[in-house]
Design goal:
Distance between the termini of chain A: 39 Å
Number of strands of chain A: 3
Order of helices and strands of chain A: HEHHEEHHHHHH
Oligomer: homodimer
CATH class of the largest domain in chain A: Mainly Alpha
Number of helices of chain A: 9
Shape of chain A: globular
Strand order of the largest sheet of chain A: 1-3-2
Radius of gyration of chain A: 19 Å
Number of domains of chain A: 2
DNA sequence: TGAGGTTAGATTGTATGCAATAGTCTCAGA
DNA sequence: TCTGAGACTATTGCATACAATCTAACCTCA
């Protein structure tokens, strides 16, 4: 396996629940598992530590961090503010482009990518392959963040959506198909350069996502899945 | 120099402006500068990348990320929500301790540390050593986050306050002395287990900090410091 | 029997050396 | 003069080897 992506693999194993919170992450074991040396493993662990997915102590080692499930409400609330900001700033840049006529090649690339994402999502829904929708959803939100042009906001989104993905680890979200059409409305506001409208639409979109999450959790609790 | 802290040094150089945005960070140069090998430098760069202070591309290298100054408003807004959450959860835990009577040694340690921080701040103000207040202020906010018991929120606070510290890089905040007494009110609400009150006080505290930042920036612009 | 110090093993931290890749510079050809 | 292909160099990515440190088991002694 390509050593450059070993971090992504470990992250996926944590988020998907293969590695449970509290599990000790021994460098040599991980190195052997992914058929690389300890160096890339250590670098991956440093990234995961900064992201809050792993807890490390010098000369002692790393363990998988506790699940953020207790913080679900707060995480969603922060995400609402954060993604409203990315949408607002994306709209602002769109308006600047429309007025000033700057080219900005990166912007055009990402903007095109969003069209592809939306169409891919439509196709996935039409064919009923709902399990592929989660990653497309994520890509849409990151693409909007990239349109905002702010690396700070992107890196915050990376951190927080990693944790929110973790929240969903054991559940397949069924909200996807309802939520998908909302993306086009958000994008339309961004394209139109309507800053406050884009921010409001995105905020409401994420808020509904939060509500769906808690409704699902309540349902799970009702049917006694865990306890 | 102890290699384990080389990351903190690089971070400090970025935040303080010694390393300007766009500067190429060559591993061998940094290794020589801090008298270590490239390995600890690389691990530090991975952490900084995850924090959004550095941008890396495989086989090309790392550069200092653009300053987050454009995102100041959004960052403060997110911080208001985030720190309201840490204060609320800290209060919740305090209430649980008062009722249930759990011991929790870590909580007691941090709680004592806060007292020391507050007294140290008073002393610093009395002696006029205002330049030491910034780090004490930071320690107070992180200590509250630790009382919340949530690693997710702590790691988000780490990331966002790194960026907000960066915003202040060229300015010495003069708000410190006015803001300091507010800390005691926040702590009192936490200790009393008043969740909503603690959250509201913390939110207002951070909002005032934001306002002071923008007032200072406006003043700087007036007097033509930069342009 | 139990408390405290001690040593062996396991694990992390770092240095060195080599492999892989990207960017650059040169030079032939049109 | 411009263009493109190819080698060259600087830099990053990684594997191996060794040093530093922690943890736990054991042993000593009161």
């Amino acid at each position: 396996m390509s050593p450059l992506v070993v971090g992504a693999r470990i992250r996926a194993d944590i988020i998907s629940g293969v590695l449970e919170p509290g599990t000790k992450l021994r460098e040599t074991a991980l190195a052997e598992q992914y058929a690389v040396s300890r160096i890339p493993v250590r670098e991956a662990l440093r990234s995961l530590e900064a992201e809050g997915l792993v807890e490390s102590r010098p000369y002692v080692g790393s363990i998988v961090a506790p699940s953020p499930i207790e913080d679900a409400e707060d995480l969603f609330e922060i995400r609402i503010v954060l993604e409203s900001a990315t949408a607002r700033r994306a709209a602002k840049r769109a308006a600047a482009h429309a007025g000033g006529g700057e080219p900005d090649p990166r912007w055009r690339t990402v903007r095109k990518e969003i069209n592809e994402i939306l169409e891919a999502g439509d196709a996935v829904i039409a064919e009923g392959r709902f399990e592929d929708l989660a990653v497309l959803n994520m890509r849409f939100h990151f693409a909007i963040a990239e349109l905002s042009g702010s690396l700070s906001l992107i890196s915050l989104l990376r951190q927080i959506s990693g944790k929110i993905e973790w929240l969903y680890s054991l559940n397949v979200s069924r909200r996807g198909t309802q939520a998908w059409p909302e993306h086009r409305a958000i994008l339309a506001a961004v394209d139109a350069g309507q800053e406050t409208n884009a921010a409001a639409l995105m905020g409401a979109h994420v808020a509904r996502s939060r509500d769906a999450y808690f409704a699902m959790m309540a349902e799970r609790a009702e049917s006694g899945v865990d306890e």
